[in-house]
Design brief:
Radius of gyration: 38 Å
Helix content: 40-55%
Order of helices and strands: HEEHEEEHHHHEEEEEEEEEEEEH
Distance between the termini: 70 Å
Number of domains: 3
Number of helices: 7
Structural class: alpha+beta
Strand order of the largest sheet: 5-6-9-8-7-10
CATH class of the largest domain: Mainly Beta
Low-confidence stretches: 36-44
Length: 354
């Protein structure tokens, strides 16, 4: 009897223990679920957004103060020294194509102009015979007249095509290079380009740089190339800009011995090796290096910062010279790396969301 009672008591105790563990496990799951909900509700504020394709970091005044972010305006700076800029060897395939089209149209025009006098003479002869007692039929006279009209129409149409093509070349390459295309290929600059004796180099100078003189030259050296400087002669202004540099662009003609299409080159003017350029001094502490490029954060609003590239080819005392930024532009001089890390967090989050 006692054995049976002990068994019942033991079973009750085991049941009580099992219920206690069940309560603990269920409570833990609910607690973890509540914690997860709280974490989702207390999510970090969104500090990076995209505006017109650019990433903008937004920090309120309290966060800026707690993070130690400092901002100061850029000071004007007159740079006196050797002007050194970048250029690139560009393809002239479209110029070659335009030249071929232009010469074909010129041939068509010359052919139409050469047959027109004969057809006009034939028409006059037929007209005289027709008026002389109908020695030739009206039908033949009409056909001769139609032939003359067709020749004249062909001439006008070809002339219009030539003008339209010339306007297109000027719009894309400028008048001087367009003039090269309209000339025969037996000699001249375009002939040297087509025969790969020379290459066309587009050079990007600072906005404050004056227009090169007609017979001026520059010296080119391929980036990371241990070769003697290559002299290049000025041709004209470039209609298109160089997307990797902000400034005025110009065309130069250079020997094609070692230069190839797509090659980047350092450029130094052959004359006036020392010049004065107006710009700003970007202090070293404002620079945030990323991807091998120098960046700064510009304060566009009291709580908004925009990352911009900085020219890093002219290092001066305490910083870098940049001719594209305006004096008075407010930039972050302490905390730039913090803003850059916020952008990285934003990019990583977007990648995870995807």
């Amino acid at each position: 009897m006692n054995h049976k009672i002990n068994w019942i008591i033991g079973a009750q105790i085991g049941l009580i223990v099992a219920l206690i563990w069940a309560v603990v496990l269920v409570g833990r799951d609910e607690y973890e679920s509540m914690q997860a909900d709280n974490e989702e509700e207390i999510e970090n504020p969104q500090r990076v957004s995209e505006q017109q394709g650019l990433q903008v970091v937004t920090l309120n005044q309290a966060t800026q103060q707690n993070s130690g972010i400092r901002v100061q305006p850029l000071q004007a700076y007159d740079y006196h020294g050797s002007i050194k800029v970048l250029g690139s060897v560009i393809s002239i395939q479209t110029l070659v194509d335009y030249s071929s089209q232009y010469q074909q149209l010129k041939t068509q025009l010359a052919l139409a102009e050469s047959v027109l006098p004969n057809h006009q003479l034939q028409y006059l002869r037929y007209k005289q015979l027709n008026e002389d007692d109908k020695n030739i039929s009206d039908k033949l006279l009409q056909e001769a007249q139609t032939q003359v009209n067709n020749d004249q129409t062909q001439i006008r149409a070809t002339q219009a095509q030539l003008k339209a093509l010339n306007d297109t070349i000027i719009a894309q390459w400028g008048a001087p290079l367009a003039a090269l295309v309209t000339q025969p290929h037996t000699n001249g600059a375009l002939h040297d380009l087509i025969t790969q004796k020379k290459v066309l180099v587009q050079v990007s100078f600072p906005l404050t740089y004056t227009l090169p003189e007609r017979n001026s030259s520059v010296y080119l050296t391929p980036i990371q190339g241990e070769v003697s400087p290559i002299k290049a002669d000025y041709i004209s202004q470039s209609i298109q800009t160089d997307i990797s540099n902000i400034g005025k662009t110009y065309f130069y003609l250079a020997p094609a011995d070692i230069l190839r299409v797509g090659m980047r080159v350092n450029v130094v003017p052959a004359t006036a090796t020392s010049a004065s350029l107006k710009g700003v001094l970007v202090p070293n502490e404002a620079i945030a290096w990323h991807g091998g490029l120098a960046w700064i954060y510009v304060k566009t609003k009291p709580d908004t910062f925009l990352r911009k590239p900085v020219a890093s080819d002219t290092e001066i005392e305490h910083g870098w010279f940049d001719s594209t930024l305006q004096p008075g532009t407010e930039v972050v001089t302490r905390g730039a790396q913090l803003l850059l890390s916020e952008e990285f967090k934003f990019q990583i989050k977007n990648e995870n969301d995807d």
